[in-house]
Specification:
- The structure holds 2 protein chains of 2 kinds.
- In chain A, the strands form 4 sheets. In chain A, strands 6-7-8-3-9-10 form a 6-stranded mixed β-sheet, with helices on both faces. A 5-stranded antiparallel β-sheet of chain A has the order 13-12-11-14-20.
- In chain A, β7, α6 and β8 form a beta-alpha-beta unit.
- Chain A starts with a strand and ends with a helix.
- In chain A, 25% of the residues lie in helices and 31% in strands.
- Chain A has 2 domains: 225 residues, Rossmann fold (3-Layer(aba) Sandwich), CATH 3.40.50.300; 116 residues, Nucleic acid-binding proteins (OB fold (Dihydrolipoamide Acetyltransferase, E2P), Beta Barrel).
- The radius of gyration of chain A is 24 Å and the shape is elongated.
- In chain A, α3 crosses α4 and α3 runs parallel beside α5.
- By secondary structure, chain B is an all-alpha fold.
- The two termini of chain B are 45 Å apart.
- In chain B, 73% of the residues lie in helices and 0% in strands.
- The radius of gyration of chain B is 24 Å and the shape is globular.
- In chain B, α2 packs across α12.
- The chains are: A alpha+beta, B mainly alpha.
- Chains A and B meet through β6 and α3 of A and α7 and α8 of B.
Chain lengths: 378, 279
């Protein structure tokens, strides 16, 4: 368990800068998840913390000690790799014991620790097997076991579940969450899967092109994205962005135009916008609903039915494709013209530079349904 | 013509070609075996029927001259060359494959082009080197040039092989606290057996058969290796070439190589194709 602190961390590969001055405070026992599109530098940042890449500029502290120049071992970190990276010629036991053996731990101690870890991860019957005789999930558990056994200060996970099939991924996700709770260890986890990010993280770090876009708890990012990038990245399906302009500034919020002539009063502070300004309105598919008197109209282009829910892809009056998520089945057909209810309390408004207007919405986060929120407005 | 006929002819042609290849490659060796059991005027008989009536030639090479010593020399030289060049090549290939430094590509290309030099081109330079080191006419004087001769090949093959090993394995070992030397010894070496056996065996064969250096850098018969000893075998008078003995000696030194290759055959193939397809 340890604090990890990054101060103005830069990384260049040759003349290409891939990490642009990252500041981050990771607290003891916290589960931090780095997310971002591929190539955003999330794995590089993790490798900088691990000590597998040199930091070009800036400072990295683990428990108050500057560790820029220290080897991975001296940093007392453990890492779980995407490809597991088990030593193919060693048995499960030897794989887990290798690090301890190199640290000159006594034979009995190694045996005890490996046995304990194997017990936790249910690997005891497999200790004499070679990695190639194990299934994907078992290999992943061995890789995690190899990390746990050394009792590191910080656990680093580099997309550890992306090589597993969907069912196994859910199971391992739960196991990792359980592990974090039981060990109460500092964990840094890289993934591009936002379900993993949302379910595992204490705090999520959203990265884009080597910069931190926002740091916050999963629901904070969901409800209060600071910019259009975070708003679009967190949440599935993606948030709808509608080109719009400010109609008027009101006490309850900002009135914005919707395609098709209607308007909605978004519950956001009118910070740095004036009437007539071009803005982007963000609204999540799960917050839109079909309603006869809705302020926004469009034509249904594609319907996807999943049984428990359905997605409507609606072409609005400006020609933008808007996604609407509804519960259960729908009786609508392709080509139907529909009106959409846009709850103002759940709208996000972004300035021209893609930064978000602060949302007035601050009731207890996470208990809002569109209907609920809409009634609040009245 | 029916399909069956056509297929039969195709098979026939195939086997005829195989027979040609086999005869061409086996015949010289067969002739050597044949001649090694003949003596006197029998040697000039054109009969191809084996006749194992006399083993005088085999006894002769060990009694009339120090051929046992020559074999021992060859074994010492070839084994040392294998050990030395594998050790240097493994460590060098780790650096060349895993550590990025300025001029790495240039160095690799240089190593590759050096391996293409004809031996004669470096002979005089090597001779100066051997004299300077004071190892002329001694076994180390053969081990050093042979190692130099085999190194480019072994380094190149092992570097290619080492590059194929996943980078994460090395990083996992780093995180586990392994030093570079530990990584090479405990993680990479066990995974490189097929490549080591292949390159080691090829280096052994090269050193075993090497003639030019062995001829140039030795003076007395007791430090000569087998190929030179065979070439310099002389008969009772300077007008007589002891063909029988030369053939017997050739057979004696070829057999160990053939046995080695047969034993490691599977490994060689595995080594040469390793990395081509991920297993």
């Amino acid at each position: 368990m340890a604090d990890v602190t990054l101060r103005g961390v830069y990384k260049d590969f040759g003349s290409t800068r891939v990490i642009h001055g990252v500041d981050l405070d990771i607290k003891k026992g916290e589960f931090i998840v780095f997310v971002g599109p591929s190539g955003c530098g999330k794995s590089t940042l993790l490798r900088l913390i691990a000590g597998l890449e040199d930091i070009t500029d800036g400072e990295l502290y683990i428990d108050e000690a500057l560790v820029n120049q220290r080897s991975p071992k001296e940093r007392k970190i453990a890492m779980v790799f995407q490809s597991y990276a088990l030593y193919p010629h060693m048995s499960v036991f030897e794989n887990m014991a290798f690090g301890l053996e190199l640290s000159k731990v006594s034979k009995e101690e190694i045996f005890k620790k490996v046995a304990e870890t194997a017990e936790i991860l249910e690997l005891t019957p497999l200790l004499n097997r070679k990695p190639k005789q194990l299934s994907g999930g078992q290999r992943q558990r061995v890789a995690i076991g190899r990390a746990i056994v050394r009792n590191p200060k910080v656990f680093l996970f580099d997309e550890p579940l992306s090589n597993l099939d969907a069912a196994l991924r859910v199971q391992m996700r739960i196991e990792i969450a359980k592990l974090h709770r039981e060990m109460n260890a500092t964990m840094v986890y890289v993934t591009h899967d936002q379900t993993e990010a949302m379910t595992l993280a204490d705090r999520i770090v959203v990265l884009n092109a080597g910069r931190v876009e926002q740091v916050g708890s999963p629901l904070e990012l969901y409800h209060r994205p600071q910019n259009a990038f975070v708003a679009g990245f967190i949440g599935s399906p993606k948030m709808n962005f509608i080109k719009s302009s400010v109609v008027s500034l009101q006490e309850r919020g900002v009135e914005v135009a919707l395609p098709g002539g209607g308007t909605v009063i978004a519950s956001v502070a009118a910070d740095g916008v004036a009437t007539g300004d071009q803005v982007k309105v963000g609204i999540r598919p799960e917050h839109l609903s079909v309603s006869a008197e809705g302020p926004m109209t469009g034509v249904v282009e594609v319907i996807e039915s999943l049984g428990e829910s359905h997605f409507l892809y609606v072409r609005d009056a400006n020609g933008t494709l808007v996604t609407v998520q509804g519960k259960g089945d729908t009786r609508l057909k392709n080509g139907d013209t529909i009106a959409l209810e846009v709850p103002g309390s759940l709208c996000h408004v972004f300035r021209k530079d893609d930064t978000a207007l602060p949302r007035a919405f601050d009731a207890d986060i996470g208990h809002h349904t569109p209907a609920h929120a809409a009634s609040e407005l009245v | 013509m029916t399909q069956t006929m056509k297929r039969r002819i195709q098979t026939g042609v195939l086997y005829a070609l195989i027979l040609c290849v086999v005869v061409l490659s086996i015949f010289p060796f067969y002739y050597a075996v044949l001649s090694s059991f003949r003596s006197g005027t029998e040697l000039f008989s054109s009969s191809l029927v084996p006749d194992f009536s006399t083993i005088d030639n085999y006894i002769g090479i060990f009694t009339a001259q120090p051929f046992g010593t020559n074999i021992l020399n060859s074994i010492i030289v070839a084994t040392s060359v294998v050990v030395l060049s594998l050790f240097i090549a493994v460590t060098a290939s780790y650096a060349l494959a895993r550590i990025s430094f300025r001029g790495r590509g240039l160095l690799l290309m240089t190593i590759l082009s050096v391996s293409m030099f004809p031996q004669v081109a470096i002979l005089s330079g090597m001779f100066e080197l051997i004299r300077a080191l004071g190892v002329y006419n001694s076994l180390p004087g053969l081990i050093i040039p042979n190692t130099v001769l085999t190194l480019p090949f072994t380094v190149w093959v092992l570097t290619t092989f080492m590059r194929e090993l996943p980078k994460e394995l090395e990083e996992a070992a780093l995180v586990d606290g392994a030093s570079s030397w530990t990584i090479v010894r405990r993680v990479f070496l066990p995974l490189m057996w097929p490549a080591l056996v292949t390159t080691g065996l090829l280096a052994f064969i090269a050193a075993w058969n090497e003639f030019l250096f062995a001829l140039t850098f030795t003076l007395s018969n007791d430090v000569r290796t087998v190929p030179v000893a065979i070439a310099l075998m002389s008969g009772a008078s300077e007008f007589e070439l002891p063909w029988g003995r030369i053939m017997a000696a050739s057979v004696v030194v070829t057999v160990p190589i053939v046995v080695l290759v047969l034993v490691f055959q599977r490994k060689i193939v595995a080594g040469l194709t390793a990395g081509a397809v991920k297993g």
